[in-house]
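Q: My labmate handed me this sequence with no annotations at all. I'd like to see what the chain might look like in three dimensions before we decide whether it's worth expressing. Could you predict it?
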Amino acid sequence: MGIRFKEVSHEYPSYSKTMYKAIQNISLDIEAKDEFIALVGHTGSGKSTLAKHMNALIFPTSGTVEIFGNEITKKRNKKIKYNNIRQKVGLVFQFPEYQLFEETVEKDIMFGPLNFKVSHEEAKKMALSALNMVGLDKSYLERNPFNLSGGEKKRVSVAGILAIDPEILVLDEPTSGLDPAGKHIMMDLFREIHEKTGKTVIIITHDMDLVYQYFNRVIVLKDGELTFDGSPDALFRSDILESNHLDLPNTIKTLKFLKDEYKLDIDIYKKTVEEAAMEINEVMSDE
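A: Here is what I predict for the chain of 287 residues:
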């Protein structure tokens, strides 16, 4: 088992001088390998708070998080090496600027390995390897990360975490701000990393099209509570979407409209535009 949440809650101080419950009584298991998980929910549902618990960036107010055999509770345990936990579970923040701070891409990516006492020469090799994993070549090594495009910054921030070779990779909204083509490029990249390395990848996203097309497991939060944990197909065939403030993927929405409006005998559960187009063509040819 990679990560296990046991009745975990987390509270933050609020402006009203009461405690705001960000997550409540969360219990779930995440395997150390071979999972590709979407973490979804409306704004303020607790997704980022849950993700920060996955590498002990914050501690639970109550309950226990077990991370690769280390039990994390509200009280800091001096026997636990938290840096080791953060090497096993790498967290990529939503905004690359929160992670990029060095004057060159190479130095930024090298920071993690050097922090884990890797030699300078080995860290350079790891930086280049990680850069290649995210689809960038060595010409980027000497570039200033703040002069890169938004998509390139996201790739470099991911490379900085990949360089420490985490067993589980957690990414907070990695496709936000990208155009549709850019989103699919990034998702293809994450899926390729997952398939080639076997790493468990957990991605926070609001994009239901990506959830339906790419993931094999979806965890849904609403107001800090776990409301669904299963396959995307089961989620989009269920009746919980509206109550969880979630939308249907565009393919299902479009096919459902055609089915209802024109009384077509059509399978609305198609994941891609290409599959939806084929379904429409087949139905129309039979009419």
